[in-house]
Specification:
Elements (H helix, E strand, L loop, with lengths): L4 H9 L5 H14 L3 H8 L4 H32 L4 H10 L1
InterPro entries: H-NS-like_N (IPR054180)
Protein name: DNA-binding protein H-NS-like N-terminal domain-containing protein
Pfam family, one: Histone_HNS_N
Length: 94
């Protein structure tokens, strides 16, 4: 039984940092480095339900990664002696 690339990706998603998962991440990074025309051309070969699922999965990752950036910013501010209350006070005055 052969698997599609998409089915393989879903299985690899469930695994830890396996070489296959690392390579899949590199593949996605390389895809992001392509021109928009090339990405659209490749996406036209993928069924619409699969594209919708991919977009949904990427949105989920973006939402979860947003909090990573907020945490990093909070740690940087704390290291500079700026409290969350001071930042909130500053932002509320803007």
């Amino acid at each position: 039984m052969s698997m599609t690339t998409y089915e393989m990706a879903r299985i690899l998603e469930q695994l830890d940092e396996t070489p296959e998962k690392v390579m899949f991440g590199k593949l996605l990074s390389e895809l992001g480095n392509q021109s928009s025309e090339r990405i659209r051309s490749a996406a036209k070969q993928v069924p619409v339900p699969v594209l919708r699922d991919l977009v949904y999965q990427f949105e989920q990752v973006i939402d979860s990664r947003k909090y990573e950036q907020v945490e990093t910013m909070a740690k940087n501010l704390a290291a500079q002696g700026i409290s969350a209350e001071e930042l909130l006070d500053y932002l509320s005055k803007k």
